[in-house]
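step: validate -> pass
step: tokenize input -> pass
step: predict -> running
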Amino acid sequence: MSRSDRGTRALHQALPPALRDTVDDFAEHLSRVRNRSAHTVRAYVTDLVSLLDHAVRMGCVDLAELDLSVLRSWLARQRTTGAARTSLARRAASARAFSAWAHRAGLLPADVGAALASPRAHRELPTVLRADQAVALVEAPARRTPPSDPPPTDPPHAHPARTDPTIGPTSAATVDAAAAMDAATVDAAATVDAATVDAAAAAVPLRDRVLLELLYATGVRVSEACGLDVGDVDHGRRVIRVFGKGGRERSVPYGVPAQRALDEWLRRGRPALVGTRSGDALLLGARGGRLNPTTARQIVGGYAEAAGLPRTSPHDLRHSAATHLLEGGADLRAVQELLGHSSLASTQIYTHVSVERLRAAYRQAHPRA
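step: predict -> pass
step: emit ->
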């Protein structure tokens, strides 16, 4: 549990029992009814606990006393503590979502959050790799140095002959034979273990390659890539089935390089890492469980650094995929569908990226720029 999670839990426990129950009911509503992801539920709950803690400090002993002035005071306090505009916008959205739900549930006499304004989040242009940089990144695992062979194990020491006079020569020979059998068993087990370790070590670059290929080829979110099951891959049509935000399902195509990486991973990589915790997960961690998004972010960042590229995250690969699609002539609506954006406005930022890159090329190349 992170420090922020521990802080939220402590504030939650300090709330009056009725407010604690309200927080739990709202979290269940987000998860079960709205089908929000665990990450979204955690963010909304964190904001709500902070809001209710502020309300209690202002003297609101009952939820019905929550009004617009308390919401505004809470946001103002967040701003004075250094919260970014994007964080303030998200927290305002959390407050409005909670207020609307509480009003529908009869916990608030009015939807006090409906009139809550929030600062417009400043949207910075996303980091976008050049096409050659993206190719260098996805091909980086193929250039990874294979692990060195483990040092040979020392042969087990022979058991000394039994010198007890009550044991005859035949018994001593039996003991020596048993010791030799034990040594052979140890050697065989060590050989099997070493082979297993080597196979697992060789599987990791294959896993990394297919992760990078899928992130760039499809533009999926890192949580969507890590949530893929083996059955979500349609090899014949080269399409993956993705479950995005809100549980929305979409089909996303991928290309020949990603198909080759998938084939190699499923043939030689995944069987070496599969274990009792693997289930149907497509991408596995080193211990056999489903690959964690945090680990996936570390993989992307590590290979980018090793390749001498700018600091890169999985979301940067998503940005790069969208931008390269638009620069290659793809329709904006098609890119919206591929990325799983519910609104076209979310996709239009990539047209701004393309224009900025066009301006940069113009300034660099045109004699009268």
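step: describe -> The chain has two domains: 3-115, 131-321.
step: cleanup -> pass
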